[in-house]
Amino acid sequence: MGVSLAEGQFHAAAEALGLIALFVLGAACGSLIVLGRSRYSQSEVLLVEGLLLAAAGLCNAFGLEGLAVAAIVLAMGLENAVFQIEGGSGLGLTYVTGALVKVGQLLAAALTGGARLGWVPNLLLWAALVAGGVCGALVYQRIALAAIWFAGAAALALSAWVAGAAGKRH
Asked: pTM value?
């Protein structure tokens, strides 16, 4: 958005701002689900994410690529609430640089007497983000935006699995 504004490409900047707003809206919706304090809130977030990704797949199949991208962006904002803790923040699931910053911060803490391996979960999250990016790019090269069906199916499967686990805990 910043580059588009600097280049005077206001239409492109407005599109970027719209995507940012959709992401924030998705993050807010995910937080609202978590703040409802249902024992199934993680599952509910994943279910809504999966449904949004399935809607994106359908929009793409019918040639509505703009709507497909909008649904994907909403889903990615929403996804960040999956590990939201007690209504506050948790792991940022779509932030590659944020995961690396946390690795550095927790590594510094470990070197100064903090948890020795506290940085490992964030490094694993970063590795998962990179692996997901590579896999997604490879599939996208073959079938373009139809690749979203895999992400939607994974989110729906995770929703069912997390709901089952939550049901067993209570």
From this structure: 0.81
Give residue-wise pLDDT tens across range 98-145: 888 889 999 999 999 999 999 999 899 889 889 988 999 999 999 999
Our count of domains for the chain comes to: 1
User: If DSSP states are collapsed to H, E and C, what string results for the chain?
Assistant: CHHHHHCCCHHHHHHHHHHHHHHHHHHHHHHHHHHCCCCCHHHHHHHHHHHHHHHHHHHHHCCCHHHHHHHHHHHHHHHCCCCCCCCCCCCCCCCHHHHHHHHHHHHHHHHCCCCCCCCHHHHHHHHHHHHHHHHHHHHHHHHHHHHHHHHHHHHHHHHHHHHHHHHHHC
The domain in which residue 23 lies consists of: 2-82+91-169
Q: What is the pLDDT of residues 139-163, one digit of tens each?
A: 999 999 999 999 999 999 999 999 9
